[in-house]
Each structure stands twice: as structure tokens, then as C-alpha cells.
From TrEMBL:
PANTHER family: HALOACID DEHALOGENASE-LIKE HYDROLASE (HAD) SUPERFAMILY PROTEIN, PTHR46649. GO terms for molecular function: hydrolase activity. InterPro entries: HAD-like_sf (IPR036412), HAD-SF_hydro_IA (IPR006439), HAD_sf (IPR023214). This is Hydrolase. NCBIfam families: HAD-SF-IA-v1. It comes from Streptomyces alboflavus. Keywords: Hydrolase.
Length: 236
């Protein structure tokens, strides 16, 4: 089987979000609010424990009143915002406007950093003639993040859950991505960090490769094996 297309997850695979502390500090600065450093540290730790930052520490204990919303959060922009601002509201912040301000910050390019080897791997796939797609459970348009970091030219198709009202691991979102690439699932490799969500591509017939969801500094070359897999399979 020659691999003619590669699909990538976004958060934890190609990009990593800033830390919860950086997220809170940046939002406070933009809102022109000043808090004692010990209070910033306390609030950041509480937000982190709650899993309030999309792409950050996973949310473990979802409040009962948010359980249904949480299960569908990536199906629309409205659900995504409501779910994450709802989780953030479990932490009392000094200004109610901060909940929406935090949500807005996490959608900005400066809140995300590509893994160090992401540009090299995406360029390498382009040189091999392999088409590339991004498949993400998300509630907002991540294309500006790719553009700001110079990676958009290497992506042929984006399949974003909120645009299709379908979340991974539902095979339909992977089918949308493969159709957009013009590549059969059997000739496609899915690369992700979530062994439940991203494994859904296997039901469609895609090969699946996992990377570890680690901070950027702790995963300098986690994507490089993808080039070896593609070359070993015989890229077109």
C-alpha cells in the first residue's frame, strides 16, 4: 500500500497550546487587570485542574449540569464556547468578563506553537507528493493559526468538527477529509495523539499512527517517524 495522503490532528499533534498560566496572564494583561503573582498562580492552577483550557490538561471531572453539553461540545461553535466557558466558570475569577476573554485568547495564533518538527515533516510530505489534511475536534476556525505560523501552504484540506457537526471518532469526519484529499482511506495515514478519537479513522480503513501528547520542549521529534512510514510504504 502506498500512502498517498496523511491526515493530522491539530492540538497535541501538530500544535500545542500555551500553558494555563500563560493563558491566564495573557488574558489579564489584555484586559488591563493586575493581580498579585500568588493569586495568578492560584487561579491558573485551579483552571488547569478544571481542564478549562482547550488543548491543555484534559477535563476529568465535568460538573453534572455540563455533562450532556460536554459530550457534544465539538459539534458547533456555540456548543464549544458554552462548554469551555462553563468549565472555566467553576473557578471564581475577579471579573466575569474574563471567562469570555479567556475563550477568545485560546483561539489566537499566539496561544499556539507548532511542534519543532512539524514544519519539516509537512514540507517533506509536500516534496514526496503526499496530500495533507487536518482533522480536528474543535469549535472554531484554526486556519488562521496555520497561516500565522507559515504552515497553511502545506495543508490541502481541513475537516473541522464544528463545520460538519460530526466529532471524531465518528468515521464520517475522516471520510470527509479523505474525499477532500481525493485519496482512498486505504491509502491514507491518520496521525494523532488521542487513542480513542483518532483511532476512529481505522474503521474507515485508514492506517493510524499515534504521537504522545507532550509539551513542545519534551517532544522535539515525535512527528519525524511519519516521513519514514510514508517512504517505507512507497509514497506516490
Amino acid at each position: 500500500m502506498a500512502i498517498k495522503g496523511v491526515l493530522f490532528d491539530f492540538s497535541g499533534t501538530l500544535f500545542r497550546s500555551e500553558s494555563t498560566a500563560s493563558w491566564l496572564r495573557g488574558t489579564l494583561a489584555a484586559s488591563r487587570l493586575t493581580l498579585p503573582e500568588h493569586e495568578v498562580a492560584r487561579l491558573a492552577a485551579a483552571l488547569d485542574r478544571a481542564g478549562a483550557l482547550p488543548g491543555g490538561t484534559p477535563t476529568v471531572d465535568v460538573p453534572e449540569h455540563l455533562v450532556d453539553l460536554w459530550s457534544r461540545r465539538d459539534e458547533s461553535a456555540e456548543l464549544h464556547r458554552a462548554a469551555y466557558t462553563g468549565i472555566a466558570r467553576t473557578v471564581e475569577l475577579p471579573d466575569p468578563a474574563l471567562y469570555d476573554a479567556l475563550y477568545e485568547r485560546h483561539r489566537t495564533p499566539e496561544a499556539w506553537r507548532p511542534y519543532d518538527d512539524a514544519p519539516e515533516v509537512l514540507r517533506g510530505l509536500r516534496e514526496l507528493g503526499v496530500r495533507v489534511g487536518v482533522v480536528s475536534n474543535i469549535g472554531w476556525d484554526l486556519r488562521p493559526v496555520f497561516r500565522a505560523h507559515g504552515l497553511d501552504p502545506y495543508v490541502d484540506v481541513y475537516a473541522l468538527s464544528y463545520e460538519h457537526a460530526v466529532q471524531k471518532p465518528d468515521a464520517r469526519i475522516f471520510a470527509q477529509a479523505c474525499a477532500g484529499l481525493g485519496v482512498a482511506p486505504q491509502d491514507t495515514l491518520m496521525v494523532g495523539d488521542d487513542r480513542r478519537a483518532d483511532a476512529g479513522a481505522a474503521a474507515l480503513g485508514c492506517a493510524v499512527h499515534f504521537v504522545e501528547h507532550l509539551p513542545v520542549a519534551r517532544r522535539p521529534d515525535g512527528l519525524r517517524p511519519v516521513l519514514g512510514l510514508v517512504e517505507g510504504a512507497g509514497a506516490r
